Automatic annotation (TrEMBL):
Residues making up the signal peptide according to the UniProt record: 1-20
Pfam families in the record: SBP_bac_3 (PF00497)
Cellular compartments per GO CC: extracellular region; outer membrane-bounded periplasmic space
Residues covered by the Solute-binding protein family 3/N-terminal domain: 40-270
Gene: gluB
Family designation: Belongs to the bacterial solute-binding protein 3 family.
Keyword Cell cycle: no
Gene Ontology biological process: amino acid transport
Keywords: Signal, Transport
Alphabetical list of InterPro entries matching this protein: Bact_solute-bind_prot3 (IPR051455), SBP_3_CS (IPR018313), Solute-binding_3/MltF_N (IPR001638)
Full protein name: ABC transporter substrate-binding protein
UniProt key word Nuclease: no
Amino acid sequence: MRLRRIGAVLAVTAMSAGLAACGGDKTYANVADKIKEGKTVVVGTKWDQPSLGLKKGTAPEGFDVDVAKYVVKELAGGADDVDITWKESASSNREAFLANGTVDIIFASYSITDSRKQKVTFGGPYIVAHQDVMVRGDDAAITKPTDLAGKRICQAAGSNSYKRITDPPPDGELDLDAQLVGAANYSECVAKLGGNNLDAVTTDDLILAGFATQTGGNFKILGQPFTDEKYGVGLKKGDTKTCEAVNAAITKMYQDGTAQQLFAKWFGKAQGLTAPTAAPTFEPCA
């Protein structure tokens, strides 16, 4: 598989059905065809999340990135000759990037929610994370999620994690009166936590584990997960053919042991995380 340097991103232009993907001078009916026939794809990932999607040099690395490489290769029929252009896809712009063709497909700790399913077709999930809480290593006042009442928590742009704390079900979870502190992304959240401008960062345990490992003990994770966060593969709304192909690739990834190997590679040193043993139950391709 040829990994192209990050540069100009190929656009996905809309046909009457709103699904067509452009590759060079040719237009494809869907992303799966573009990968298999055109041998090119634009993949969106995070660039600021250690162990999931973190830019190193000219390309990102992490669990999401490796899953993307595996799935792209499977969609190409096992070929290694697909040119991948990597594009940073922050939580605040993932839906827009898919809709306007900035990216073809997204692997970016992208939790499947009912509201997002109105705008995006999701393959997978390829793994299920769980929301938890991270605090400074010397903080003894916050020992469980409900201790966040009245505390300063981070509100990362485009992320719904804070709602699990502040809102009631069905969109939220704990319905606590916490103070929200805005940030552009979770790397900024962690910086603010380290600078004592926050009391806690709460989001998916896989995201928190990457930051906790990277910072070498400055922070601790409570280890009390309270939601299921299904990480899906984002596609332009209506691209069900690619969705079904993605699900077949994820199934194979678990059957041949690759998913477990990638989890151990990126999260093997993290405490309190349980490695997956089988593919999660997929969402309907719609």
